[in-house]
Amino acid sequence: MTTIKTFAFAALTSVSTYSLAAEFSFDRPGTGFGTGITPVGQLAWEQGLPSMSYQEGTDAAGAKIKSTALNGDMLLRTGLAKDLELQLGWQGPSWRKTKVAGRSVEDDGLGDVSIGLKKAIDLDDEKLTLAVLAEAVIATGNEGFSNEDDIYSLSSAVDYAYSDLLNTSITMRYEVQDGNWAVSAIPTLGYQISGKLSGYSEFVFRKAESQECEYALGTGLIYALNDRMQLDASIGVDLDGKDKGYQSGLGVSYLF
Question: Is the link from the previous residue into 29 a cis peptide, with omega within 30 of 0?
């Protein structure tokens, strides 16, 4: 599920921050993205503090491999029009420790950058919202911390608010990398817990060309300090294959 974790830095969730205005929501945490648009003239800064992943498997010789990685992913969003925003992302500085047959190796480097345009589509419905995101992940990172080839994607997010306490959404992502296509589907359930605290749960499905299907589950908490700032914490687990994979993260988001 390495590819799924890569997209986590783009920061993409379908959960709204309930204390903010309905037309805006932060895009972290989570794998999907929200339908809210950053207001014109304002800047949303969404920062990982950091994100962590753990992988456990075996190599071709049967030796056990354990890998732990940290990265400070970041996303900047600014409104270009009432229904259009520009996104600039960076996977940030990364650190990784790999242990093979009892021997450990540590490495660090910088991750890839991304640029995207998100547009909200007016459905003339108070509860149902839709947005599309065109994004390019540019392979500018250091060796071992990069996707190696650029990734171009087109995604859509549909959100339905059942009430002030509950909403559902689904993000669909279509991408191409070096001529190979992949599709992802991320249904998400968002819920208000109490006061300024809300949460989300998501299921991630991904199928890449000539590869096995990938599955993951994720959940997290969001605390809105005020109308402009939120804190988040999330965890996730890979469900496919015999190898073990876990993800977690802390983050802060602020609207300038």
Answer: yes
